[in-house]
Amino acid sequence: MKRVIHWFRRDLRLHDNSALHAAAHAGREVVPVYVLSDWKRGHRWTGAPRQQFLCGSIEVLARNLEKLGGRLIIRQGAADEEIGRLIAETGAEGVFFNRDPDPFGRQMEEKVAAAACARGATVHAEKDVAIHERNEVLTGKGEPFRVFTPYARAWRKLSKPGTHLAPLRLHTPDGIASLPLPTIETWRIKASAEIIAPGEDAARKRLDAFLRGPIGRYGELRDVPTAGATSRLSQDLRHGLLSPREVYARAMAVKGASVDAFVTELIWREFYLQILWHWPHVLESDFNPDYQNVRWYEPGADFEAWKRGETGFPIVDAAMRQLNATGFMHNRLRMIVAMFLTKDLHLHWKLGESYFMQHLMDGEIASNNGGWQWSAGTGADAAPYFRIQNPWTQSARFDPRGEFIKQWVPELRDVHPALLSTAPQPGRRICAKYPRPIVDHAKERETALMMFLQR
């Protein structure tokens, strides 16, 4: 083909990009386009930190495309309408994109495909977000898995696709109208978090750094928030700054028992993508229908205290303040605060799910939903409803010296670590500057059990 369009979405990179690779081989000229949404503050599925990270990543992508001779075209609005116009303007003969796993992305893909076909352009949708997607990992009966362990066993047995090199050159024709590169002001918002460096170049440095050292301690220390043993690649996978194929292949090339623990986390990501693909209703209701009638509390002052990190439970408050300040939260802490919201405050998981999506840089709709339903006891292969984490013992296990807590809750910096993992006497404070615990964990645990039993 003389001219084709590559529609960038959650694949903001040049290395090992399935659809970009196909577009570069199919067309003598490639028109790379990113279509900005009409996002507004308060949107359930995204928020300012993710938009900040997105803007920085698009800027890096545009710069890297220019090095190849290409030019990133920016449009804004409904993707099907904008790509339809771009086909008409450029005479493009084909549209290439990587498939999205969530129902909203899939609906737009259908509209884009219809708009392209109406203008005589062919449509080429590629697999890129997951190593194995959709119906690739099924039970012996040809059904999707509902439980992680057998899914992971089947996932590991499948042959893995190879990776693609970045294009050496891309030629984008001149004269195509484009909006300026987006900034957070594009959506009339202000920076809300001190985020890490965005873009493909920074993501590749993070991957290199993880494989040089922390991966060797991952299995042992990944649950310790101050250990620096996690990959910090979640936002890079979410925005497609790295491909899961490359991350998997490079991890497998590293020797050591901890590699398997890391790969297991990649498989959890794909398990939740598969759950969302086969059961998209999980975004609105419980995966396990047995718990549809649990009588959750109405949100009020306790929910606001949870969001601010002022619950009187140090590990919960430290985690929430980390999230609010950086757009990131350590995975172990996500489980702790999610179980606290659902089992101690008895609030519906959708409240926490939405808050996380609005504040996380790495807000992956499938993993976030899966994690919240797992913690609430309502999801696929979830923690049983009667397994309720104690925030005080979680502090003792994973932050015994109070290093993480003291980093994010300055009121507690002079408090002895033992007091940070022990519930104070009823009505008492850990220290004068810090609020009393808003609930009694032991009592609320019994309440949570009754809520599930009486559903």
**What name goes with the CATH superfamily of the largest domain?**
DNA Cyclobutane Dipyrimidine Photolyase, subunit A, domain 3
Poorly predicted regions are none
Question: Could you spell the SSE succession in H and E letters?
Answer: EHEHEHEHEHHHHHHHHHHHHHH
Distance, first to last CA: 60 Å
Q: Class of the largest domain, according to the CATH hierarchy?
A: Mainly Alpha
Proportion of β residues?
A: 5-15%
> How many individual β-strands?
5
Helical residue percent? 40-55%
Give the overall average pLDDT.
96
List keywords for this structure.
3 domains, alpha/beta, 18 helices, Serine Threonine Protein Phosphatase 5, Tetratricopeptide repeat, Rossmann fold, DNA Cyclobutane Dipyrimidine Photolyase, subunit A, domain 3, 5 strands
